[in-house]
Design brief:
heterodimer, A: 396 residues, mainly beta, 6-stranded mixed sheet, 4-stranded mixed sheet, 20% strand, B: 112 residues, Immunoglobulin-like, 3-stranded antiparallel sheet, 10 strands, 4% helix
Amino acid sequence: MSSEQITVTVVGPNTEATITSGTTINVTLGDVGPINWSEVAGKPTTFPPQAHSHAISDVTGLTAALAQKVELDPYGKVLASQLPSYVDDVLEFANLAALPATGETGKIYVTTNNGSVYRWSGSTYIEISAAPGSTDFVPEGTTNLYHTTARAAAAAVDAVTWTTLTGKPTFSAVATSGAYADLTGTPAAYSLPTASATVLGGVKIGSGISIDGDGVISASAGYTLPNATTSTLGGVIVGAGLGVSSGTVSVTYGTTAGTACEGNDARLSDARTPISHAASHQTGGADAINPVIVTPASLSASQNDYSPGTADIIRLSSSTAVDITGLAAPSADGALRLLINTNAAGGANITLRHENTSSAAANRFRSVTTANVVLLPDGGSVTLTYSTAISRWRIL
Amino acid sequence: MATFSALPGELNLSLVRGDEFTFTANFNVDLTGYTRAASVYNDATNAELAAPAMTVATTTTGGVTTSAVTFTLTENQTAVLTAARMRWYFRWVTPGGFTRTVLAGIVRSQKA
């Protein structure tokens, strides 16, 4: 930057480089020296190419490249002097006498008067063998034979066999033995349908029936009627107390042994003495009658109209002390119930409330002392009997 | 007229404290895109005392663009210019990032 020059021109009364307010100065930056390209303001951002020309010599290698190109005549043809020699290897002359006295090897000379072709051997012209022109003048060889119609036909016949033929139809196999089994498409064997009530057909001969060789059906002699059972039709024998007449079976009634009793038979009187009741129904007997016992779910709250089920013995239990104000009434008068507190010793009491109105009247308990009855744990019990006369359970 | 041979051009300012001080410098440079700074500072401590306000107006005549920069110190700014030795400078930063201090000089102030 040391090369930069600045000229400060102070306009006004000041003639020195000291100015006062209101002064205008002109500052001219002179030779500012090399300018960095990035400092140039307003420079274009693109530099599109423009048409221009160059001398051939300005292009490297162009002169040498042009020297290797053929030159064209005014008509755009290649000059003959620049053609290679093999371009005119075939030369035509009017006749043999017109050929040059001394020829050139590698060239072909054609005499137009007769179409003969010659080459220069180095000392004379030698005619190049003419083509035969027709196979009529070429004898047949041993390998490549001439085509003849007869040969073509023979070859065709030899080549064609049934196997090599294409497009031939397909023939199905046919029977050759004459046996019926060889035939296909034969109808299925006829099967006579079984006869039924509505279908005409064949029948089978059962037992007791025979058929002779002429197809005549006959009943076999000595047919024995089978004995009747609950599932087999057959003959029956009339037993005691029954009679049979003209095939009609009848009951034999009477008042003596071996006869059937009728409704007005004196033997059906109610005055018959009943036998004593079986002792086996007693407790400990073989057919003892046991009381019905229920064990309802443990109670966790007091119960009104309690209905543990119909049973003779009700084994009660509870998780806490509860009251029962009534028990579902039975249908029979005198029904007995035994209630037992099965809570473990030290457990909760279960109390039956006397005439407590929380239960329906017909379900309430009535105590002789009008006091509530407390069933202590570990077996405390009470017996009840129902009275339809007062519609209450009486506490016994 | 005074001619200076190198940057910055030495240009002294003589002002009256408490008066507005203004002058205009015409540059034969298009300052479009330049950033500028000017400062009056204590030559002993380098502490800046005042920053002159600047306005720039560019004019193009005959394809040449010039820029007129007007510097202004307000009354309040000149009132505090009491240091024994004070200088000022004006510099710019070209769009290419080159910083040049163009003008600089002594500031002399006197009582009104």
